[in-house]
Specification:
CATH topology of chain A: ABC transporter involved in vitamin B12 uptake, BtuC
Number of domains of chain B: 1
Number of strands of chain B: 4
CATH class of chain B: Mainly Alpha
Radius of gyration of chain A: 19 Å
Order of helices and strands of chain B: HHHHHHEEEHHHHEHHHH
Helix content of chain A: over 70%
Structural class of chain B: mainly alpha
Strand content of chain A: under 5%
Largest sheet of chain A: 2 strands, antiparallel
Distance between the termini of chain A: 53 Å
Mean pLDDT of chain A: 83
Largest sheet of chain B: 2 strands, antiparallel
Order of helices and strands of chain A: HHHHEEHHHHHHH
Low-confidence stretches of chain A: none
Shape of chain B: globular
Mean pLDDT of chain B: 87
Number of helices of chain B: 14
CATH class of chain A: Mainly Alpha
Structural class of chain A: mainly alpha
Number of domains of chain A: 1
Oligomer: heterodimer
Helix content of chain B: over 70%
Largest interface: A-B, 50 and 45 residues
Strand order of the largest sheet of chain B: 1-4
């Protein structure tokens, strides 16, 4: 039983890490209806930039600020150069453009900062501590804390600030938002900058977990089932989806996996998300689609 | 002047229903086919056949398959490489386990196996749409990869998980030179492309397009959703399965499940988008672009930057240019090369007059 709880908690905390990446997707999908496949390469780019700037001897906080500036700049440039000319194109074209973008950003990051694996130490102890007999990783707890702060911050931003309200209006209906005078371009720029920021946070946490390397881009594939389970348009959905996926994935790996010879973590989350989709085709918290002829 | 249908009267239904209604188009296609069948096999060398032309043809075939599903029936799929893998491994196992199985029958059975798997993974499409479906098709991609690597029965217990394609022999003739494999691939691809071109003009094809344009409306006018969508998955997977078998038998010779990874699925999607969604000719244009462009780029960078940059940097640079070009293409012509081709033909009809 104790082991079960330990696996469950480990899974929940790992799920939070997935949610962090999924959040970036949700932000952009909500505001512009683009499934941004390049989110993974943005995570890699952020982590690579941070590590490389740190390696130049720049102090931690300054490096953080510099990387943030780079990510915001990247977001703004992407919005201006790639997405604005593609306004009003079918979704699949935009999706393809972001796949092209992910190839480009991966190459760019490795051209500028080199392609060797870097370690990243955020100065957090990764010694599991004992909580009534259950071992919990401190690092995962810290990551969960970061995610909580991020979600709270984003929710406040969306609901309390003027630009956040504009964002929600744009997400609801592009044309209506434009006709009441909301500057669509600015809003999208802000969203992409915010997605860059989320990528930075995810990049730092994932980077210190796995090492800063090319494989970081693959976290996208972990985030996708979270997204379809939670719904593309919902911030809480990304969190809840992450928790469900993380927990069941770890439990299945430990308790069911051995019967199949293991290695099921690649497809299990997708199968799980698919089961949820069959019951709720727009994800758990996704916006309901009303179809009219 | 030369490309004009004036004076070409249709006097019976057969003439009206031709695939290429304009005589100049028919002549053009004949010339291309004649070149491909009668000239290229004699002037090409082994490098051209086995490194460029065969992959180009096989990728075109796979792209036609994906295009039937995504371009015509509107079901976005990211798991196409998985179905190619099913085809390749099914062909291998049929030929391994059934004594004296002719390889062409093996290819057909490979396609049918892929179609069966495609129907199973197509079931969610009845309920799930758009990107939700796209992400869900990734389940098929990863699941098939996992099954093929995890259960050694599929690879005949080979230690490395690599299978070696059996010899292809037809009436005592062995297809073991690059040029013979090229002709074999060409015959299969021509036949299947012709079938596809006709298929999209039949009732099934029109049903697919109705579903793509709006599935609720299609259902309301009485198009059976279950049958039509699953048929799209089945036929598309059949094409992908045959393409996978060709990839293993005619192109690589030895193949492992990793040859059909997610990047291959994305590559096929790139092909149909750059080529043109919902067109058959677009699959060939797109495949040509995807196969030839990296070769040109490689030639270009290695001559221009020879000795100045290390190989790692060069490959990143190529990747960078490739990514930018895809974005550039999407911005300039979101409907793909097939659209440019069509515009060119329109212009040619009026030439030399502007209107």
């Amino acid at each position: 039983m104790l082991f079960f709880i330990e696996v469950l908690i480990g899974g929940l905390l790992a799920g939070v890490m997935y949610s962090l990446v999924a959040l970036g997707f949700v932000l952009i999908y909500k505001a512009s209806g683009v499934l941004n496949f390049a989110q993974g390469s943005m995570v890699l780019f952020a982590a690579l930039s941070f590590v490389s700037i740190l390696a130049m001897g720049v102090p931690f906080w300054l490096a953080l600020l510099l990387t943030l500036a780079i990510m915001v700049l990247l977001g703004v440039v992407i919005e201006k150069v790639v997405l604005r000319p593609l306004v009003n194109q079918p979704q699949i074209t935009l999706f393809m453009a972001t796949i092209g973008l992910s190839i480009l950003i991966e190459a760019l990051g490795q051209m500028i900062w080199g392609s060797q694996v870097h370690g990243l130490d955020l100065g957090i102890n990764d010694i599991p501590f004992n909580f009534y007999g259950v071992f919990i990783s401190q690092f995962d707890l810290f990551a969960a804390g970061c995610a909580a702060v991020l979600v709270a911050g984003l929710s406040l931003f969306f609901h309390k600030t003027k630009i956040g309200r504009a964002l929600r209006a744009v997400a609801d209906d592009h044309q209506a938002a434009m006709s009441v005078g909301i500057p669509l371009k600015h809003v999208w720029t802000v969203v992409w900058a915010a997605a860059g920021f989320v990528a930075l946070v995810a990049g730092l946490l994932w980077g210190s977990r796995l090492g800063v390397q090319f494989a970081l881009t693959l976290v996208v594939l972990k985030a996708l089932p979270v997204l379809i389970l939670g719904g593309f348009t919902s911030v809480p959905g990304a969190i809840v989806g992450g928790l469900i996926i993380g927990a069941t994935e770890k439990l299945a790996e430990v308790f069911i996996g051995p019967y199949f010879g293991g290695g099921i973590e690649n497809w299990f989350p997708y199968a799980l998300a698919l089961v949820f989709l069959l019951i709720r085709p727009d994800g758990l918290f996704g916006e309901k689609h009303i179809e009219r002829v | 002047m030369i490309y004009r249908e004036t004076g070409q009267y249709k006097s019976n239904y057969g003439a009206d229903e031709q695939i290429f209604p304009i005589r100049q188009d028919r002549i053009g296609v004949m010339i291309i086919l004649a070149l491909a069948y009668l000239v290229v096999p004699f002037i090409g060398n082994d490098y051209w056949f086995s490194a460029i032309l065969i992959p180009f043809l096989v990728l075109s075939l796979a792209a036609i398959g994906l295009n039937l599903l995504t371009g015509y029936a509107g079901q976005l799929s990211l798991g196409s490489a998985g179905f190619m893998a099913v085809g390749a491994f099914a062909a291998y196992n049929f030929m391994l386990r059934i004594e004296g199985m002719p390889f062409l029958l093996g290819f057909i059975l490979a396609g049918l196996s892929a179609a069966a798997v495609g129907i199973v993974f197509g079931l969610p499409s009845l309920r799930v749409k758009g990107f939700y479906l796209a992400a869900a098709t990734l389940a098929s991609q990863f699941f098939i990869e996992w099954v093929l690597t995890k259960f050694p029965w599929f690879t005949n217990y080979s230690a490395s998980g690599v299978i070696t394609a059996q010899k292809m022999v037809l009436f005592g003739y062995a297809f073991d030179t690059p040029v013979s494999r090229y002709v074999l691939t060409l015959v299969i691809v021509t036949l299947l492309a012709l079938v596809a071109k006709n298929l999209v003009r039949t009732r099934t094809g029109r049903d697919w397009m109705a579903i793509r344009d709006m599935d609720v409306a299609a259902e309301v006018i009485g198009i059976p959703m279950l049958k039509t969508k699953l048929l799209a998955f089945a036929i598309s997977s059949f094409y992908l399965g045959v393409a996978g078998a060709l990839w293993a038998y005619c192109y690589l010779g030895t193949v492992e499940p990793q040859a059909f990874e997610l990047t291959r699925s994305f590559q096929l999607l790139f092909i149909i988008i750059i080529g043109g969604m919902g067109t058959i000719v677009g699959a060939f244009f797109g495949a040509a672009f995807i196969v030839f462009f990296p070769i040109f780029l490689n030639l270009f960078t290695s001559t221009v930057f020879a000795g100045q940059l290390d190989p790692g940097m060069l490959s990143h640079l190529e990747q960078f240019v490739f990514g930018s070009l895809i974005i550039f293409f999407l911005i300039v012509e979101p409907l793909g090369l097939a659209r440019l081709w069509q515009l060119g033909k329109q212009k040619l009809r009026l030439w030399p007059f502007p209107h």
